[in-house]
Design a protein that fits this description.
Order of helices and strands: HEEEHHEHH
Distance between the termini: 49 Å
Helix content: 25-40%
Strand order of the largest sheet: 1-2-3-4
Largest sheet: 4 strands, mixed
Structural class: alpha+beta
Number of strands: 4
C-alpha cells in the first residue's frame, strides 16, 4: 500500500506555491535580456527535460534550482525530516535530486550546455550568474559551485 500525505498546518503554505516564473527566474531573465541575450521559456527539449529557459542561439539550457526543493548545500534541509510525512519528504527530495541529474544528462545528450544555478546565487549576485551563463558556451556543463563537469 502506498503511503499518503497527511495534511498538516506546517505544510499548508506549500499548497499554493509557484512552480514557474519564480522571483529568482524573473530576475535572471531580466538581467539576461538587459545583457542582450534572447531566450525561450520552459521548452521541453527532451522528454523529461524542461529547463527554466534556453538560449537557442548559444545552445545553453538554464535551470534555476530552488534552495529548498533541490537540496542546496547552504540553504537546504540539514536535519532529518520529522512528522507524519517524514518518509515521503525524504523520498520526494531524493527524486528531485535524481530528476536534476537526469535533466542535466538529457540536455547534454541532446547537444545543449546545461547551466544549473541556485536561487540564492541569483538573489545575491545576478550579474555573476549572467557572466557564468555567458561563459558557458566555452566551458561545458556548469554546476552551482561553478566547477565544470567535463575535462577540457
Amino acid at each position: 500500500m502506498t503511503e499518503r500525505w497527511t495534511s498538516t498546518d506546517a505544510g499548508r503554505h506549500l499548497a499554493g506555491r509557484v512552480k514557474t516564473s519564480t522571483a529568482p527566474e524573473v530576475a535572471l531573465r531580466r538581467a539576461l535580456h538587459a545583457a542582450g541575450f534572447r531566450f525561450r521559456l520552459h521548452p521541453s527539449i527532451e522528454k523529461g527535460c524542461t529547463p527554466d529557459l534556453v538560449l537557442p542561439r548559444h545552445g545553453i539550457a538554464v535551470f534555476v534550482d530552488g534552495c529548498f526543493w533541490h537540496g542546496c548545500p547552504e540553504h537546504g534541509r540539514r536535519t532529518a525530516w520529522t512528522g507524519p510525512n517524514a518518509d515521503l519528504w525524504a523520498q520526494k527530495m531524493e527524486r528531485n535530486r535524481q530528476r536534476d541529474e537526469r535533466s542535466t544528462r538529457l540536455a547534454r545528450d541532446a547537444g545543449w550546455i546545461a547551466v544549473r544555478t541556485w536561487e540564492h546565487e541569483v538573489v545575491q549576485d545576478v550579474g555573476a550568474v549572467v557572466a557564468r551563463i555567458a561563459a558557458a558556451s566555452t566551458v561545458g556543463i556548469i554546476h552551482p559551485r561553478g566547477t565544470p563537469d567535463r575535462d577540457e
